[in-house]
Amino acid sequence: MTNTKSSVKEVIPDIGGNFILDENVIAELPSESQVLEASSYGTSAWTRTARIAVKQRDGTLKSYFLKCATEGGETMMEGEFNSMSELYKLAPSFVPRPHAWGKFRLADPVTHFFLCDFLDMENEMPDPMAFCANLAGIHSNSVSPTGKFGFMVPNCHGKILQSNSWDEDWASFYTRLLVSFLQIELEINGPWREYEQAFEVIAATVIPKLLGPLQAKGRVLKPSLVHGDLWEENAAINLASGDPVVFDASAFYAHNEYELGTWRRKTIKFGRIYFNQYLRHIPPSEPVEQWDDRIRLYSLKFNLAHMIGWPGAPFVREEIYDDMQYLIEKYPPEPLA
Predict the structure, then answer these.
(1) Residue 106 — pLDDT band, cuts 50, 70, 90?
(2) DSSP letter string, 255-303
(3) What is the pTM of this model?
(4) What is the mean pLDDT of residues 72-96?
(5) Side by side, which strands form the sheet with 235-238?
(6) What end-to-end distance do the CA atoms of the chain give, in Å?
(7) Mean pLDDT across the chain
(8) Rounded distance, CA 122 to CA 100, Å?
(9) pLDDT at position 36 over 80
(10) What is the 3-state secondary structure (H, E, C) of 164-229?
(11) What is the 8-class DSSP label of residue 123?
């Protein structure tokens, strides 16, 4: 009888525990490598993670980082592999090199994995100048394969499936993305009439007034590759090189300013100095005078994601509501004739 694991905690045990590596993961390592050790490493809200120490064919030692997930794991792991691969093509010193994603052979429930280089990292805020130069380089140099906004495979923000199918209209794309997150958030945290009514006005009136002008009057809005979840828990310093590094991407092609929406959240450490450094490389889109309001609008999606991931989080729903009220007051519906 086949010996399978009964849970993801058996596939990768608690922090510090060693385990036998699944043969499908071993198959993705360089040929003739010898696995010296596989041990759980680090913490993750939705997955289990591990470090794999390997002796390569030439005798040199190398480490890999393994992430695995059960429920929704296929979309999460395939999405992260493709997200990190697209970023790595543009900025290989800024992103751990991705190697593979796949499915464990012996695991029940079904478990999927993502494999990349292991980097020794310091969990400190990266240098704003170097960090923003790298980020702006990705935004500037990326080219959407379709010329549209979206991504080539489904992926997740954390564990939340993103609505990321291709769309040539950015306002339409962002409306769809925001509404999908709102629907999930309401299912988890419950109804709130005034909150839901405010979102209706945001979708029907504010988004067209704030995002519509980006592609009006002959303006062309470039779809830029974004990391998609760029907060301090997904950024660090590579101890070997001293360079900033990012990980846990949920990438797609977006308006580059969307990336900055999460930095506006009250608890996020990417403060004004990062905004200022970023704007040295890429100035605000036209209309420039709406830049701050667009960042406020984009922050709604990231606050919704927080409420989905951490239900009942204090004050965040109120922050979302207050931001919507501010935007509605500034960009009100047209009076009825």
Answers:
(1) confident
(2) -GGGGGGGGGSTT-S--HHHHHHHHHHSPPPSSGGGHHHHHHHHHHHHH
(3) 0.93
(4) 97
(5) 121-122, 235-238, 244-246
(6) 75
(7) 93
(8) 25
(9) yes
(10) CCCECCHHHHHHHHHHHHHHHHHHHHCCCHHHHHHHHHHHHHHHHHHHHHHHCCCCCCCCEEECCC
(11) -
